[in-house]
Amino acid sequence: MPFDGVVVKCLLNELSDTIIGGRIEKIYQPEQDEIIINLRSKGQNLKLLLSANASYPRIHLTEHVKENPSNPPVFCMLLRKHLSGGKITEIEFHDFERIISIHIESISELGDITPKKLIIEIMGKHSNIILVNSENKIIDSIKHVDSDISRVREVMPARPYTFPPKQDKISPQLLDASHFIEQAKNHGNVCISNYLLKNIKGFSPLLCEEICFRAGIDGKATISSISDDILLSLKHVLEEIISIITNSEFSPCIIWSSESREKPLDFHAIKMSQYETMDFFKSISILLDSFYTARDNINRLNQKKADLVKVLNNSIARCNKKISIHQDKLREVANRDKYKLYGELITANIYCIPKNSKKATLLNYYSENNEYIVVPLDENLLPQDNAQRYFKKYTKAKTASIYTQEQLKEAFNELEYLESVLQSLDTADSLKDIEEIRQELVDGGYLKSRRKKPGRKKSETFQPHVYKSSDGLYIYVGKNNAQNDILTLKLSSSNDIWLHTKNIPGSHVIIKKGKDDIPDSTLFQAALLAAYHSKARNSSHVEVDYTQVRNVKKPSGAKPGMVIYNNYKTIVVTPDENMVNNLKIDK
Fold it and tell me: Considering the entire predicted model, what is its pTM?
C-alpha cells in the first residue's frame, strides 16, 4: 500500500489542524499491534488509530469501533499510566520519512508536567509504536527489537531512541528538477520509474508510475531510450508534483477495482490520472478509514471463506473415501451368482459327491457347451451343508450388494451437494452470504453451532441476486442452496422458467413470467446467468437446462438445493462477465 512520505505529509497537515491541543481521555489496544487513543479536541470527540501491523501499518482518525479485550495488554496499561490526561502539543514529520512523533505533555504521579513522545514508525514488517521520555530514552514499545533480531538498531526499554538508518535520497522540497533529470542521464541502463523511486524521498512505486504516465513514458523504459523531449516533459511533471507537495494541494483518492466498488486497489494523496475509477475525499483520514475498513472486510471475507473451504474439502475427502469403499465392496460381491450356481450344482449332484471331499467336478447344466467346473468344498461338511453354505454366501452378498448400492448412491448425492456448497462459497461476495452458507453447514451437521448471544435473532431476510433482462423481465439467482430452495419451491409460480447448468453445481435461476411468452433473448440471458453462477463460470459452451417450475420437484429427504426435473430443453452459452454486470440491478 502506498502509505508513502507524501501521504504522511498530507495526513500530518490534517492532524495538525485537528488534534494539536487535544486532551487524551482513554487508550485502548484492540489488536496485538494496534492502539486507539480517544481524544477531546476543539469541542470534538476523536479517535486516533495507530497501527504497527506488518501488512497495514498506519495512523489516522477513525470512526469505527472495535471490540477491546477484557484484560488490557501490558503496553496499553503502560500508555494509560504515562499518557492519560496528557495534552498533544506538536506532531513532527521527519523529512518525508514515514516516521511521526506525537509530542505530549503528560502529568506525572506527583502532578508535574513531563514531556513525552509517542513515535509511530511506518515501515512494513518493521513498523513500531514507541513511547520515549524527555531524555530520549525508550519507556517501552509495542514490539521489542533486541540484538538477536537486529544488529543495526535495538528498540528496547531503557535504550536511547535512535532513528532508523537514513536513506540516501533527496527530499522532494529540495529537489531541482532540471538538475535531477541531467543527473539521470548518467544512469542510462536504469528504468526511469526505479530511478525516481530510489532517489526521491517519500515516493512510492504508485507515485513514480503516475509521474511516468503523466509524462507519456513507459515506466519500465531505460533512461537512455528516452528522448530529450520526453525527458523535458518528465521535468515539467516532476515540477508539477513537487508544487502539489510543497503547497499541500492534495487530492486524496481511493482507486477501485473495475470489477467492484467493494475492492479498493490503492490510494494516494495525489490524483492518479492513470486510473479511471476513483473516489475523492476532502479528508485523508476518512479516506484511510474507508480504505482499510474495505480491506479489512475483504480479509475477513477471505478468512471466513478459507475456514469453510477447509471444512468442505475435508467432508469431500471423507465422501470420496466412502465412495471408494462402497465401490470396492460392490466389486467384491459382484461374483455372488457364482455362489448360487455352486449351491445348485451341489444340490443336483448331492448323492454323487463323496463325504469329506475337498472339491467336486460337476457338470454345469447352465452352460451351453455342457462344461464341467470344479466346486471347492469344505471337507468337514456334508454335501448338503456345503450347498447351504454357498446359498447363504449368495444371499449375504446379494443383500450387501443392494445395501452398498444404496449407500453408494447416497455418497454420490452427498458429494454433489458438497460440491454445490463449495461453488456457492466460491461466488459469495459478502459476509452475510458467507454466514448463510455457514448456517447451512451447521444445519447439515458439518459444523458445530456457535453459542447464540442473548437478544440476537436469526435473520430471515432473503436476498438473491436480482437481474433485469434486456426485455425488462426480472431474473432471480440463488446465492446458496438454502436460497435455491426458497426461490424455486416457495417464491416461484408454476409457469415461471427454472434454469440450471446440466450436471454441474450451480445456482437455481428463475425467470418471472408475465402474461406473454418469454423472449428468446431473455432466455439466453438467463442461461448465461446460470452458467456464470456455476462451477463452469470460466468455461465455454456450457449446457444449461430449462423448464417450467411445475416440472421441478424436490425428492423427500433430499439435501438443500437438490431437485429433480423433467420435460426440459437445453441451451448452450458461454459466460460473459460484462453482460452479467450490465444485467444486474442489485449492485
Answer: 0.71
